Amino acid sequence: MAAGTNAIKIAIVGGGLAGLAAAMKIAEAGHSVDLFSVVPVKRSHSVCAQGGINGAVNTKGEGDSTWEHFDDTVYGGDFLANQPPAKAMCEMAPSIIYLFDRMGVPFSRTKEGLLDFRRFGGTKHHRTAFAGASTGQQLLYALDEQVRRYEVGGKVQKYEGWEMMSLVLDDHQVCSGIIAMNLNTLELKAFKADAVIMATGGPGLIFGKSTNSMVCTGSAVSACYQQGARYANGEFIQVHPTSIPGEDKLRLMSESARGEGGRVWVPRQKGDTRNPSSIPEKERWYFLEEKYPAYGNLVPRDIATREIFQVCLDGMGIGGGNQVYLDLSHIPAETLDRKLGAILEIYEMFVGDDPRHVPMRIFPGVHYSMGGLWVDYDQRTNIPGLLAAGECDYSIHGANRLGANSLVSCVYGGFIAAPAAIEYAKNIQRNGADGSRVYDQELQRQQEVNDALIKQFGKENQYVIHEEMGKWMTDNVTVVRYNDKLKETDNKLLELMDRYRRISINDSNLWATMALPHARHLKNMLELARVITLGALNRNESRGAHYKPDFPKRDDENFLKTTIAEYSGEGPVLSYEAVDISLLNPRVRDYSHNKQETVSATVAASASASGLPPKDGAKQVPPEGEEQKPENLSAPVIWTQDKEKVNAPVRDDATRKERDKGIEDAGGKSDKL
Amino acid sequence: MSTQVQTSSQQNPPKSVVIRIRRRDKPDAPQYWQEFELPYRPNLNIISCLMEIQKNPVTREGKRVTPPVWNMNCLEQVCGICTMVINGRVRQSCSALVDQLDQPITLEPMSKFPNVRDLIVDRSQMFEHLKRVHAWIEIDGTYDLGPGPKMDQDDVMERYAYSRCMTCGCCLEACPQYDGENYIGPQAIAQVRLFNMHPSGKMTRDERLEGIMGEDGITNCGNAQNCVKVCPMSIPLTKAIYEENRETVIHGLFGWLKR
Ligand SMILES: Cc1cc2nc3c(=O)[nH]c(=O)nc-3n(C[C@H](O)[C@H](O)[C@H](O)COP(=O)(O)OP(=O)(O)OC[C@H]3O[C@@H](n4cnc5c(N)ncnc54)[C@H](O)[C@@H]3O)c2cc1C
Ligand code: SF4
Ligand code: SF4
Ligand code: FES
What we know:
Chain A has 673 residues and is an alpha+beta fold. Helix content of chain A is 34%, strand content 15%. Chain A contains 17 helices and 21 strands.
């Protein structure tokens, strides 16, 4: 297929920041792009990002540097990130911001007309460039505009309203294209490509309600996982400390609200029902400022989330409920409008109160997945010809992502994936013998899945199953995790998978139906939910966003490792891979002090709590041998905690072949459970 | 995590929500109305109502029907995809709160765009217009060329207002002049303004102006001002039209002199 470099065609799945960044680079290099997206790319989830994008430009003369950004990123991620790509991203970040500046993004300015920067969580520097309070929208539009320019130039062909259903893999497990479905006609079609880049964003909908957009199901990466792609660190799910609870979703209140001086508090007196404005200063408990004097309200997200969660659990929430105040009312309304206008409007629009005068009521909500498709330092997955970038890959953020680091990692990922895909495409030898057979086979497989679903008739309601999954995942696999609850959740997921086989598509009109695509997503979400849950169950420590009260300490000896999940036909097989810590020695993460102080004062091995000071009476790590081993799970689980098998993922071809027999349902063909 | 946020809800909340939906099965099929009723809860928006109906699509008369379909994504009025006509007014359904709407609530698809099914329309013509007006900055390349031009915060603020356009189409739905073919419409003109104001964008201003100078160009605006009133992002559309009209006149003059 790749006859000469001019004929290179790369398929990109997803038109958020990562996908568009890659598309722009590939088109600029003179190659062709097929760009697939469920929604018109300009309506991708990236528009939701409010706060900003990180890059150590040091306009405030604070001695910031890309090294400092790198150190904050790795430290904030509790040392689970491979360090070289994190460093490379931080080094590229200033030039990424400058590029967006040149593309016309209306970044806020200083008096001198230079880019202005704000502070975000997990750093002491003004490092976040922002365009009002809708930075993600502005960045996405800038890329959308450049890609449209290449579309006019004939280099980019968009397939909007086409959903990727599965990969086309040849007999050697090499990716040679995708199967996509037209969401109006339900027509399935095979698209050939020299390489495929996944850029499909996060999986928030697995938790039912989250801060994510409605297309963020994780369905596409789950399909890849079920076809043999490795999924890494699935258990690391970021729960954002400040979201606005709603009927249909949890709307985010950006961290920039705290970056601009927002203060989190609850009344000191339990169950105080007074109007917040009438509660005097000394009767307010600014618990973050009190417990973390160095970072105050700007501690990293996992810590802020747990503290808010705990305060509510202890009955200290507003009116005893699951809410705390996030207060901006002490800042002049004019300043707020200029710096936070858009997000304040969101609160006003959906709650009806004016946050310029009344403290907002907020609670944590599922927000971001640090885990994702396993990739190497060139964004390549373990499947030859398949790359990944953006929130759907696992690199960069380790156990916890810092605010404003995602947008930059998405663009970085796209910028690395693009040349890597081209390089790969230049060098492949396809012996043409496969011809159209592999495409036809995969097409047929996908058609059979659809046909079966359409024909199938049963009493179960797919939306109810989705709701139940969301509730179980939110209750048991988010802020605080217990092994018995995680086991129960996995059993529940198996039950839901069983019930899934008895759903009916409740729409007899298949034109532009929402029912069939949702049914396909649901199956894939359930598979990925197991990866998240079992990954959490198996990781007996606390690190970053993953917190187990029964194992309150970070355990570098056993778990300074990347979790790798591989699909077996019966569920995930877990193994572990060493983390590349070649640049920074792991040290204790403690945000009650300035980072510098901790640098000199700590030793790697004896890492303590992941940020939270141990509570009085908190259980200590049980002595060796007393660990809860989750062996008595009722399901036929193949994952293992066996230390021998750690670092030994299924790699050799024979094993892979055998396992693959069980994976013939590429993207979820038949339920064999 | 299901918490109730205090609202400015009425004293006597209704017991149920009645929603009339104008439906269509296929692009060439006729439209028809169906009425649904669901239990009232505080803080409902139109999307939550539609989700409820989708789960169990039974009309008020008790007839089981196909679930109505619609588009949604961000649910915070920033992607523009969920736009429809609610109680006669074009707006985003994710930010339309039941507590602020008169019942029965009517939902209709936008009328200026091809109707795919039920509440879904095809707005690709708006993206085509963006191609025509070259709505981008002609950067030399994506490699590292340092920062962009210095800018005054006031200019940035003015551009920022235009850059928030989410291509929702409310302005086109409300514009009496726009019917899809005859007039390029305020959204594209505002984008011309956005790029023509930028120091680098200015350099290729003429290409954009030509995009709005044809038969279906800027002169079709009848200055009815409906567009500004419905724009959910409060984009100063009539100001853009005024400024760009001036630019095209000057451009036309120079073009004529050059001949
Ligand atoms: C409310 C909110 C605020 C945020 N604020 C910030 C912030 O201030 N700073 C920051 O750095 N990060 C922020 N984040 C995180 C950041 O926005 C996301 O991580 C990032 O936008 C993800 O971009 P992406 O390119 O990976 O994917 P997305 O933007 O999610 O795009 C995914 C794309 O994939 C497509 N797609 C999905 N599945 C398929 C399929 N099967 N077939 C075809 N196409 C498919 C979709 O249509 C879409 O085009 C925020 C996140 C949220 C939820
Ligand atoms: S001012 Fe012009 S563009 Fe706006 S609604 Fe009136 S005719 Fe249409
Ligand atoms: S100008 Fe306003 S109404 Fe028109 S498309 Fe843009 S955001 Fe929508
Ligand atoms: S869903 Fe994005 S604007 Fe309503």
